[in-house]
Amino acid sequence: MFDILDGVLERARARGAREVEVYGERSTSRRLKVYRQEVEQITAAQRQGVGVRVFREGAVGHAYGSDLGDAALDELVARAVANAAVSDPDEFAALPAPGGPPADVHPFDARLSAATDERRIELAVSVEAAALAADPRVKTVEDTMYADGDGEVFIASTSGVRGSYRSNQCYAFAYVLAEEDGQVETGYSYTVGRALEDLDPESCGREAAERACRLLGARKCASMKVPVVLDPFVSAAFFGVLSSALTADAVQKGRSLFAGREGQRVAGELLQLDDDGVRADGLDSAPFDGEGTPCRRTPLIGGGVLQGFLYDAYTARKAGRGSTGNGIRGGYAGLPSVRPTNLVVGGPVTPLADIIAGLERGVIVTDAVGVHSGANPISGEFSVGISGILVENGRLAAPVHEVTLAGDIISMLMNVTALGDDARWVPGGSIFTPSVVIEGMAIGGT
């Protein structure tokens, strides 16, 4: 692949381009679904290609393609150069410079490459079997899926950026329907890792069943203002929305509720929120980002105080700062944009059982509908539909659903009073979070 990238750089130089970056990718992904202990679908896909950026006096031209033949690469470079010629200049657009040696992180596990399709199928079947065996009220496992990916990325530029790495990950998922007295409730669970040996299919299936069954008999509760416990799946959804407001791009565009608050208290003192692109078990850890900048750990909130924002090369130049290694690409066809790597929620923890025992009245929120559409990252206001379990006098009481949780993100963060001891990775954004206790949340019910 480096021969191909070097060939693209030479072609661009021959067309008069002096500042050029080439990004290459090749990857394999697999996905399979089982239903009633039989394989319903199995797919495998391979992809490869390159994207090239040409910088000329602040103007940027971009082109990409999957055909790596000589004629196609000639055309690819010609398109990138032509695009630069007709693009508007931007004083902050420039070829990223080398940012130092890559981080010492190794996001590849050879065990996954050695796995067979038979073993993958066996694992998915065992997820479904565990869900069905967990409770007689589980009538159907609507969706049982296993997926994995194995990819390599390569980058080279005329500024001296040059590197490559390989990464992989896998996960299994179950979505369960439970029924009792004509009422149907749903539950889901994930298990994630870098190899099949990291996954726990039985726990995944069993947890999905338990999450569905414990909501049977749920009904609306009275409106109230009480402490809530966001379980890891729900807290991950909220922190995922929150993360977009912690990017320099959102701040510079006036689309972040945290703009102008750097160095100010924005959360409860115990809360620590980091973007950690080098954490050993992080699903999105990497030696460097999509621009070749070494990944690192970036504190975002510490001791309740806003520590800073995430930057790629462009937003860093605009702010007069350095990139935090968050110029993330979705693949060779895309351009870098500022996004988190692994969001890690931390701080002093309390056993979840003790948290529940200490609640006179509250709600454990196990599902929230519409967090991404119902939460506004600019104003911070949100209103979402939730399901969960009432807590009364330190004990789990009745399940509830069809009620709303409303407030604003800053008030929510300021009222974080405890973190559980149940932290886990939640995919769909690579977020590591425990249950989070928030005082004085408004529950809208009857």
Overview features:
single chain, 446 residues, alpha+beta, PmbA/TldD fold, six-stranded antiparallel β-sheet, six-stranded mixed β-sheet, 20 strands, 39% strand
Describe the structure.
With 446 residues, the protein is α+β, with helices and mostly antiparallel strands. It folds into 2 domains: 2-211, PmbA/TldD fold; 218-446, no CATH class. Helices cover 24% and strands 39% of the residues. It has 11 helices and 20 strands. The strands form 4 sheets. The chain has a 6-stranded antiparallel sheet. Strand 11 (327-328) and strand 12 form a beta hairpin. Helix 4 (117-134) runs parallel beside helix 5. The protein is globular, with a radius of gyration of 24 Å. The relative contact order is 0.14. The model has no long low-confidence stretch (mean pLDDT 95).
